[in-house]
Amino acid sequence: MKEIDKYKYCFVCGDKNPNGLKVKFFAEGDVAKAEYVAGPDFQGYKDMFHGGILASLLDEVMIKAVIAKGLVVVTAGMEVAFKKPVRIGQKILLTGKMTEQKKRIILTEGEARLVNGDIVATASGKYFVADEKMKEKLQESLEKGQ
User: Fold this and answer.
1) What separation in angstroms does the CA of 105 have from each of 14, 23, 60, 85, 114?
2) Fewer Cβ close by (within 10 Å): the C or N end of the chain?
């Protein structure tokens, strides 16, 4: 598996964001993958992982599937369906893939599972391919994967 490029200050994947999650994403074929252990700093209810952080992880794994194909995109919208709660300390396995491209619109799907295979959330995303000016700006903080 190859590590997917990251943006230095990104809350989810950036190494330079002191408050970030610092998640590493990898490409395996057309699928982006990552693992994350739900930490106590991101509780909603006591001992429960916050759904907003899980949604951020799903957004990121879906966008990474697109970035792995060499496209620069920004999120236009997404939907998340939460299936089961995640407890603090549980490992989350994330996958995302690009499902369709319509000119400058990219569609994706994502999934979050526990190690035992239980699906905890699914997502669909819509992304805009960046125009040249935006692409140039976004590339300023790009860090190539290993």
Assistant:
1) 25, 26, 17, 31, 30
2) C
State how many domains the chain has: 1
Q: What is the pTM of this model?
A: 0.94
Q: What is the pLDDT of residues 32-49, one digit of tens each?
A: 999 999 999 999 999 999
127: domain CATH number?
A: 3.10.129.10
Q: Could you tell me which of 10, 112, 105 has the C-alpha nearest to residue 58?
A: 112
What pLDDT, in 10s, does the model give residues 38-95? 999 999 999 999 999 999 999 999 999 999 999 999 999 999 999 999 999 999 999 9
Establish if 41 belongs to a structural domain.
yes
